[in-house]
Amino acid sequence: MRFRLAVVSLLALFGAGEFDLRGNETAAAGQKKVYVLPIRDDIMPPIVYLVRRGVKEAMEAKAGLLVLDMETNGGRVDTTREIIGILNQFKGDTATYVNKDAFSAGAFISVATKRIYMAPESVIGAAAPVILSPGGDGIQAVPDTYEKKMTSAVKAMVRTSAEKNGYNIAVVEAMIDKTKGLILTNVMNGVTNAVVIAKEGEILTLTNTEAERPYGDPPRPLLSSGTVASIDQVLEKLGYTGAARVDIKPTGVERLAMWINMISPLLLIIGIAGIYIEFKTPGFGLPGIIGIVAFALYFFGGYIAGLSGLEWIAVFLLGLALVALELFVFPGTVALGLGGAVLMLVALVMAMVDVYPGMPAIPSFERLELPLRDLFIAFAGGAGAVFVLSRWLPKTSIYGKLVSQTASGVSTVADLEQKQQLRIGQTGVAVSPLRPGGKAQFGEQILDVISQGEMIDKGRRVKIIGHSGTEAVVEAVN
């Protein structure tokens, strides 16, 4: 019982602590809101957590404009794809301020916003996909066929964003594919001329002045909506002068969130194994603490990753409380334990589901697929760990060290085994229904007992025939 109370208390204590990761919102009622999201590093997995947090905060605040403050040399294509998907969840106006470089993946992400503005002497482009050599200190040569395949996939991804946001697809593709080249028309004094923007064999990279130069008939900017000296000028051009501005700040926990979420199945395995060992040893000790910490880290990872709020910790605790009621207060009711187990499973899954404001309460299978896979891996691994531990752990000296002093005075495994051996053959009375677990009284002592599967009514006489962990195994007697 003390173990279950400790679980509830520690997880509740963890859930009570809110980490303030939000920007300060000071908008008056009816005032326009702008969120500024910095992307000022290589496009690597930790950036995803920052972008997700910023987009969700902007959506919850009903911001009208989201501005990306861009300065990057590029990064991973898979991370870029994920960031673009997150940005697409924001239904308000979007813009990128290139200050001062948006190379490679930075250019892809910029095109995912509705407008691009550039700082003086800034650059955008050079977006051909490459593969870094092991160690990341150079570019690895790839076969021509694979390069074409990779380039085609990236072009398709960026072309979707360009079409959606009204950019010239030929310009974007020339930044990716060196075989394309780029020739546009320019009308001057009523005469139409062909202008070579990029020759075949060259990857297109544009300065701020080149990117805003108009081409075509009617003329339109090549890529950029203009050169501005600051984000404040971007806001002015978009009609957000005087709007409440919230700057999302990197907190340093983004990298921690990445690592925690990478090992989330392992955390669940450790949690399951720790709780199992705690059930199998008297008292409350190190295995229980490890199990609690593992589950707490799992939920904490989902929270700081921006995937879920603390509400799923509350759901998990509610499920845990129902299971505890089933085991110790209303044994044999089944419904409490089953309902609690379902709530705990739902909480474990939903803590890792990426849900945005305005989405349906029940996520699509696409969003549930990854958390369900991780949960399956965790339960398979946990079952394997439990099987191994049940066979191996009791035979080791470590087992004795894991057992803490109990209220009954049993301080070692040897003492416990001796006491259990003396109990075999004792008869007593079931003081609760055994379904199949419950409690029975032997003399003046009340013990946790379990039958061999049969249901035994309260008041029936029972006899101890063995032990399973710390529980006495009993059978009904006349």
Please describe what this structure looks like:
45% of the residues lie in helices and 20% in strands. It contains 16 helices and 18 strands. The chain folds into three domains: 25-247, 2-enoyl-CoA Hydratase, Chain A, domain 1, CATH 3.90.226; 264-402, no CATH class; 424-476, Nucleic acid-binding proteins (OB fold (Dihydrolipoamide Acetyltransferase, E2P), Beta Barrel). α1 runs parallel beside α11, α10 packs antiparallel against α11 and α12 (311-328) runs antiparallel to α13. The radius of gyration is 31 Å and the shape is elongated. It is of the alpha/beta class. The model is unreliable at 1-22 and 404-411 (pLDDT under 50). Strands 1, 2, 3, 4, 5, 10 and 13 form a seven-stranded mixed beta sheet that branches. Strands 14-15-16-18-17 form a five-stranded mixed beta barrel. The chain has a two-stranded antiparallel ribbon with strand order 6-7. β15 and β16 (445-451) form a beta hairpin. The protein has helices spanning 2-16, 45-60, 77-87, 105-111, 144-165, 169-176, 208-211, 231-237, 253-262, 264-280, 286-304, 311-328, 335-350, 365-392, 397-402, 413-423, and strands at 33-39, 65-72, 93-103, 115-118, 123-125, 131-132, 139-140, 182-188, 191-198, 205-207, 214-215, 220-221, 244-247, 427-430, 437-442, 445-451, 461-468, 471-476.
Helices, strands, pairings?
Blueprint: H1 2-16, E1 33-39, H2 45-60, E2 65-72, H3 77-87, E3 93-103, H4 105-111, E4 115-118, E5 123-125, E6 131-132, E7 139-140, H5 144-165, H6 169-176, E8 182-188, E9 191-198, E10 205-207, H7 208-211, E11 214-215, E12 220-221, H8 231-237, E13 244-247, H9 253-262, H10 264-280, H11 286-304, H12 311-328, H13 335-350, H14 365-392, H15 397-402, H16 413-423, E14 427-430, E15 437-442, E16 445-451, E17 461-468, E18 471-476
Parallel strand pairs: 1-2, 1-13, 2-3, 3-4, 3-5, 16-18
Antiparallel strand pairs: 5-10, 6-7, 8-9, 11-12, 14-15, 14-17, 15-16, 17-18
